[in-house]
Write a structure and sequence with these properties.
Blueprint: H1 2-85, H2 93-106, E1 110-119, E2 122-128, E3 137-138, H3 142-145, E4 153-155, E5 159-160, E6 174-185, E7 188-196, H4 198-211, E8 214-220, E9 225-229, H5 241-249, E10 252-255, E11 263-269, E12 275-282, H6 283-286, H7 288-338, E13 342-347, E14 352-355, H8 357-363, H9 367-370, H10 385-396, E15 401-408, E16 414-425, E17 431-440, H11 442-456, H12 466-476, E18 484-492, H13 495-502, H14 504-518, E19 527-532, E20 535-540, H15 546-560, E21 564-566, E22 569-571, E23 575-583, H16 589-605, E24 611-613, H17 616-635, H18 639-642, E25 643-652, E26 658-668, E27 674-675, H19 677-687, H20 689-705, E28 716-720, H21 723-728, H22 731-741, E29 749-754, H23 763-775, E30 778-784, H24 791-797, E31 801-804, H25 806-810, H26 816-831, E32 835-838, H27 844-853, E33 857-858, E34 867-868, H28 869-886
Parallel strand pairs: 23-24, 26-28, 28-29, 29-30, 30-31, 31-32, 32-33
Antiparallel strand pairs: 1-2, 1-7, 2-3, 4-6, 5-6, 6-7, 8-9, 8-12, 10-11, 11-12, 13-14, 13-17, 15-16, 16-17, 18-20, 18-23, 19-20, 21-22, 25-26, 25-33, 25-34, 26-27
This protein binds ligand C2E and calcium ion (2 copies).
Amino acid sequence: MPGTIADQTTRHGLKTGLVVMLPALLLTLTLVVMQLIFVHLGTQRVTSELEKEAGLLAHSLESGVTRTVQDVQGRLRSLQDLLLHNPVLLKQPVELQQRMQMLVAMTPQLRELAVVGQTQGSLGVVASSAVAQPGDALEPLACMQQTPVAGMLRFAAPQSGRFMGTAQGPAGVYKLPVCMLFSSQEETQVWLIAVMNPDALRELFRPIIDSLPAQVQLYRHDGKLMAELPSFADTAGPASDELLQQVRQREWGLYISSADDSRVTAYRATSMFPLLLVLSIDRQQALAAWYRTVTTMWLIATLVLVLILLAAAWIAWMRYRQARMTDELHLLSAAISTTANAVLITDHRGVIRWVNRAFSSLTGYAAEQVLGRTPSILNSGEHSALFFKRLWDTILAGEVWWGEVINRSRDGHQLMVEQTITPIRDERGALTHFVAVHEDITARKAAEQRSLYLANHDHLTGLPNRRELLARLGQWMGPEGPEYLALLFIDLDNFKAINETLGHGRGDEVLIGMVERLTPLIPVGGCLSRLGGDEFALVMVEDVGREQASTLARRITDLLSEPFELAGQTFTMTASIGVTLAARGKGDPQTLLRQADLALYAAKHDGRSTYRIFNEEIDFNVTRRVNLEQGLRQALKHPERAFSMHYQPVFDAQSLKPIAAELLLRWKAESGEWVSPAEFIPVAEESGMILELGRWQLGQVIAQLADWEVDHATFSLSINISAVQLARDDIASVLLGLLQQHEIPARMITVEVTETAIINLSEQFESNLAALAAAGVKLSIDDFGTGYASLGNLRNLRADYLKIDRSFVVGIGQSHGDEEIILAMLALARSLNMKVVAEGVDKEHQLRFLQQAGCDHIQGYLLAKPMPEVDFMRHLQHHRQVGSGQA
Ligand code: C2E
Ligand code: CA
Ligand code: CA
């Protein structure tokens, strides 16, 4: 099953494809995992570098802050030294202010230097480098409230306002006061205050902020925010407890926030001052470059993977296809090598490259015996050089050549092959190979010839049949045929009877015997053919003329009518022959056959054992008969429309009173023509239609007869019954049954049978006559004198009447011979105790002669013509009136 084979190849192909896809998928997976690991490690590394960097930066910032604060500390020390050396300055605020202003001008980190005194909790300005006036009251600063240690720096919380004494300032402007205790005596303490500019601190941070997504915060040791850059509203505020906790454990390091790991935070608590510096870097932003790299890497990796997968898929697809193709090729080549047809492949020069097994078994050459050679080794010499030239021209033109070739096998016998040569081209269209497939048709050809023979010959006699005859006639009647030819149709006359009585086996023997007799008569160049059944045809093509054809026909009828022995019995067979002649170029086989057939028909009709040569009259007659037969067949479908009865009165010869009538059938054909029964009755008899017609007629007539006002004791109706009806139908019981049915005495009926009919009596015929006679039906021998009934025949029949045929009545007064015959007939009838009827009496002198000769009944136009029933009844009535009138 091809479906299954295709499925198998597909499955195999798929397997082959998957073998490629699997490693590709594995490779992809590995690459993805590796990439993931790489990214993970890379991220770790980059993060740790970031952390290291944060630590370093925090360290360097711490140094900057420390230096700045040291500067401030330095100024405060300078002021301290100044006041220690010149305590008077405390009383000279203007002087002091000037000195301090000089110090401030030297230090950009400082905004202001002030000296304040605190007495019993209230704070007053001693001198200030800025706006505060000596004696101004101040709110105590946080840095003053702790237990004072002289010379030590204390940081106050950031305060709004630019200077001491200016509590209010523009938004975002604040100051960082730093306190140092100068002297403490009883109730009074003097503090040196440096107001630090937070912007100076912030400027320290700026280079880092500008280059990193970082934020720097400076806290007091207790977590109070002192400066930050940039300022974020949400992060401004004290340092978290968590951070302070960590700082207490370790002065510097990385702060790991449990709440927020989006930032890398490094802190340093300065050892010199109670300050805490925190640098936090936005992890995501800092690693942005790295993440970009990762993304790019992923993109590249994905691209590579997709490429790998695509390539693998493509390879898999190719392999799948290749596998399928290989499988198919394998199948194909297996199929070709095992195919029943011989296959031979040559290259473009005709050198054999490959042959299959069938080739070897067909030609007898093994593959190695032919490879490298050319197909000419198979040449049988049966074909011309032109044949091969045409073959080569065709295939070199790239077309398929097909034809029947006679090859020679290795052992020398001829091989009939049907050969197809297909040229094969490469992709560029150049011829590369020729594939020749040979189908051995030797056996087929023989079978064809045999069946051709069978189709054209008769199997019983071996003679050409009708087909073959027609074919040969076709040739003979062509332009290259003989100038004249004659066709003789031979038909055995009574073969059917032999077949029916002795059986078909014997019938066949007779036919073979007849052919044996005919064979020596076959003319030179002509032929004998069996057309079927007992019909033969003989064709003459030399020495053809009416004379020669007639001679041959006579010889055949003579020869065939010689008696022959069969199954210990002697038989005689006769044949009828129809002859027709044709000149070259005139007519066609079918017409010729038809003409011979018509001539044969005529010969049969004219009494058999004879021949007729076709002419126009025969054509006309036969055609007429055929037409009549067809017409009758139609008419019998509705006999009451086509047929009618006429009655011709029959008279007593002496009294001339109607004493009987003869029933005569009339047929009005469809064409309107009245056809004479003398013409159509024989046709009805030959075709057998008379049986149906006769029965119908009897049914009609007997029914009518019951109504007739006639003397049942004396009147008689004569009915013509055909010999065919008597021989083949149970006509007696039909007639007797009808008579009984209509209560008509059998005596009233006379059956007329022709003399020719009683010559060959059959069993049925005799039993019909016997039954009729026994019932009292009378018998009349019609047309007496035209047949050759013997005296014995007549005596056996015990007929009641003899009917002298009209041909003799016509001769009365003209032919002495006819008159003598009539007298002899009358004498014969009397001796056999029969009455005599003369028919066809249409002349007065004929009547007189017959009356004188003692004829009993007279029938003829002279006294009455045949007439329809109504007229006939009137005719009878008329006579009765005349008779009674006379009486
Ligand atoms: P047939 O039986 O000899 O009938 C006599 C024929 O002679 C009739 O011709 C009749 O019309 C014709 N005839 C009678 N008197 C004269 C006469 O004075 N002069 C001439 N010239 N002819 C005369 P019809 O009716 O044409 O019948 C011809 C033949 O057809 C009959 O010959 C008979 O053999 C056959 N036939 C007619 N009717 C029937 C029938 O019903 N059954 C059968 N089986 N045959 C019939
Ligand atoms: Ca008759
Ligand atoms: Ca007659």
